[in-house]
Amino acid sequence: MIDILDFKSSIKKKEINNSYIFVGQDEYTMKENIKIIMNKCLDKEFKDLNYIKFDGGDLEEFDPVYNACETMPFMSEKKIVLVYRANFLSDNKSDSKTTKLYNSINKYIDKLPSHCVFIMYLVMNNKRDKIGSKIKKLDKKCTVVKVDNIKGAKLEQKIQKMFSSRGRNIERVPLKSFVHNMKDNNLNIIENEVEKICSYTLEKDIEKKHINIMYDNSVNDDDIFDLINLISEKKAKDAVGLLNQLTFKGQKITHILAMMEKQFRNLYLVKVGVESRKTKEQLAHELRIHPYGCSILIRQSKKFTLRQIERAMNLCLEADRKIKTTTANPNTEVEILIINSTYS
């Protein structure tokens, strides 16, 4: 078993092995390092023909993986077969199907053809999770890469690149403030937060005031759930009363508005998903939210039509535009938004 630094060192030496398992909490870093293998092994022109991936959560049989590995690459020396989110590698998954799938891979991995680079990755749920016996057994046959969350200056550099790739500048002080407000250093989650703050701000430069507005942590999800719930129940007076309570406690109205807009956006995605017969687990995974929070969203979405949610989202955007570009009173604009959303 090696760490991510050992892996990068071996890649620099052009030492690419036949099979890899990436394991850890940071899915973003796993994906980034799998891209490194792809760039080393595959020609850009034929990448789509020589890169095959499977969702480990949906995979029930080994045959599709076997066929993908055995098929010769097209106009290339190598092909890559990836099984992402390979939950069957966890000791917590031990039903008959996952056990059979794991055993098949365990037997086959010794027989991988030289033209195939076979990669799997397992995302751990939290810091307390440990690498189990299944992966330890495979460690004797393939390269297991432990992906720990990066910290300090390296984390800051990575985040700065995320902003730069979106055409945004962020200086040292607001960058440190942004990092400080992250609950953990999971890059997959952090990238979502970078996207969120870039969507929120109109300016090219990300300043500390933007960080303060977005991450005033005293307003929590429960407050916003309650606020949206009152709107769904047509209780405009109570909803405005709750808004006034939050602002009286010193919460920034712009932050409340941003969280309301996010909540309505998630409600829309959940309602569309439910109508498409997606499960709670699928929606929680796609939206990267906790299953409990997803359950609340599903319940709330039943109290709105899609047209009502769309209108509420547009009202949020209009309120945000007025607050940023006119001398309109922010509190009044959000109160009007609540009233109009209630009686839509």
Automatic annotation (TrEMBL):
Pfam families: DNA_pol3_delta (PF06144), DNA_pol3_delta_C (PF21694). Residues 222-340 form the DNA polymerase III delta subunit-like C-terminal domain. Residues 20-147 form the DNA polymerase III delta N-terminal domain. Keywords: DNA replication, DNA-directed DNA polymerase, Nucleotidyltransferase, Transferase. Its EC number is 2.7.7.7. InterPro entries: DNA_pol3_clamp-load_cplx_C, DNA_pol3_delta-like_C, DNA_pol3_delta_N, DNA_polIII_delta, P-loop_NTPase. It catalyses: DNA(n) + a 2'-deoxyribonucleoside 5'-triphosphate = DNA(n+1) + diphosphate. Belongs to the DNA polymerase HolA subunit family. This is DNA polymerase III subunit delta. The lineage of its organism: Bacteria, Bacillati, Bacillota, Clostridia, Eubacteriales.
